[in-house]
Amino acid sequence: MEEFKNIDDFLAKWASGELSDDQKKSFEQSEEYTYYKAILEGTEVLDVPHYNKEGLYQKVQAQKEKEGKVISLVPKWVYTTAAAVAVLFFGYIWPTNSATEYSTGYGEQLTAHLPDNSEVIINSNSTLSFHKKDWKNGNRNVDLNGEAFFNVEKGSNFTVETTNGRVTVMGTEFTVSSEDNFFQVVCYEGKVRVSLKDLSQTLLQGDAFRIHKGTVENWKMNNVEPTWIQGESNFTNAPLSQVVKALENQFDITINTENVDTDIRFTGSFTHGDMKIALQIVFESMDITYTFTDKNTVILVVK
């Protein structure tokens, strides 16, 4: 791309659709075109809000004038597209054979569409990744660390890999939650197969499965989708450690549990809209006192 002297300006205009026909034709015939096109297309699976192309372009120009020099690195020009902004905020997408990855922070949720149009809603402080090239060969595999709700299109086997176990389906709706010493799967529609090192179990609609510290638990539920999608986390006879983790992920706080038994069980829910109300609902019902040692740290003590 030797003829394009100012690469930042050029890529900003290309990403915004502002190139002339001659410029676009010349660029498409260059060796660099395939590389930059792969990066831009990689962002299309994300749901992103409407954006002001002109405003973003002006910000790029202002930043360049402030710096007084141009460094031709991909991350710099990526700021000129809203899709790329979503990539920088939620995760990273790279071309070639590397994995596509989506990540959420504390209190965040992200909806992503996979190559087969399956939909995934990723809960707070979680990461989902997959290799796009594998899907072209019918291998629908994703890796999950945290919690996500899957609405899977029918087709070949769809597999969710976690450090705790594997979930395989053909087409259905379900959630998977995988943390240290905790693994939970809930089937909302269809049928899923849960596979662990020395255990395999099939779940039908309304079935829920949990393994906590090596103990398997099964129960029934009536919800048509996970309540956390609507801003409320719900638990059925869940160990306190799971509830604490959910509170930490939602409100970006650290909860000290050294003085309480984290294996005691909680049934109920807490709202995502108000941290203090959420803490009151959970801990006061369990006769546990919570105290803030600073704005982000909570210590628990049995009453």
From TrEMBL:
The lineage of its organism: Bacteria, Pseudomonadati, Bacteroidota, Flavobacteriia, Flavobacteriales. It comes from Flagellimonas pacifica. InterPro entries: FecR, FecR_C, Ferrdict_sens_TM. Residues 234-299 form the Protein FecR C-terminal domain. Residues 101-193 form the FecR protein domain. It comes from the Bacteria. PANTHER family: PERIPLASMIC SIGNAL SENSOR AND SIGMA FACTOR ACTIVATOR FECR-RELATED, PROTEIN FECR. Gene3D superfamilies: 2.60.120.1440, 3.55.50.30. GO terms for molecular function: sigma factor antagonist activity. This is FecR family protein.
